[in-house]
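Hello Y.,

Per our agreement to keep a running log of every chain we model this quarter, I'm adding this entry. I've kept the format consistent with earlier entries: sequence first, then predicted structure.
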Amino acid sequence: MRRVLILTASYGSGHNEAARCVASELARRGIEPIVLDHFRDVVHPLFDRATRAAYLMLLRHAPAIWGMAYALGDRLASDSPLTFGASRVGARALGATLDRLAPDAVVTVHATPALAMAVLARAGRRVPRHTTVITDFVAHSQWVAPDIDRYCVAADEVGHDLVARGIPRGRVVVTGVPVRADFAAAPDSAEARRALGLPADIPVVLAMAGSWGSVGRLPDVAHVLARTSRPIVGVLVAGHDRELRRSLERIAGGTPLRVFGFVPELHRLMAAADLIVTKAGGMTLAEAMALEVPLLFYGSLPGQERRNERFAAAAGVALVARGRDDLDRVLDRALRDPGLLDHLRAAMRARRRPDAAHVIVDLVLADARTRAQR
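Predicted structure for the entry above:
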């Protein structure tokens, strides 16, 4: 095998992070990874910018509409006329890209390029072996197509759901969501705290909401942490959002809360925490499970995040707070009940899959060896 094409999309940071993890593992084994953003690099940069702007606007100002669209999409087949050709977006251009790059295999980490690959296969076009990696802990109809060769999924429950939706069992492999090697080999809590200058004997609560924190409810969390009577170290991560960072700094003024912007080595902060308060992004859930750091979900967006939240609560790996008063109560309970946090860690330990990227690349390379022998 010479090269593998990895197709991603910049709708949330999780898809791109999963793509980078798979690419890094391929490169480590001497295989050339080619990572393309399906909407920007295959369809058109203007299409990418316009659709991403609309997506972020919905999440910030009308998340309920996004939630309804997500739920409606799950009720429709991926090739339904009511999806207005979403499954075919970029399919023709992707065919030309495959001709130009001639990859030995394709990995997709977003539903749209996965469906575009399926459209090409269904049209009788000769395409490389195709593996798609679902980056949330839920299945969704717009990721389901009979011509996808393999699904790599986060958990057994996602696999069961795909099989129930008609995907043959042999095409579904429970690998986990690929996370960076840093999360598999992160320092223990005590070492991480020493490196970050955090006290060893006071609970550390890390609050974040993805790379663009403004789509979460971090100010609510900051207010709750700022007024708690319990001795804690509160760490707030605003990501790339400078306005949010300034707002959090105003809330934190005169308190022991610490505010950061984007943190490249987030695994160190996460490893230092006793509890992470965040919304339920699929990548965040996978990373916290890899580190075995308890989660309290708050401010999850309608759609995939709410479904990730339900999965995590049912699996016993996270607590959930619905409103601000509920957040105060659940946070207080978690901090005064070490046994509860131990229970969450044990559930994470049973489900964590920090080697997902390694397993996925093993499967992709095995396909190549099989094809070479034919």
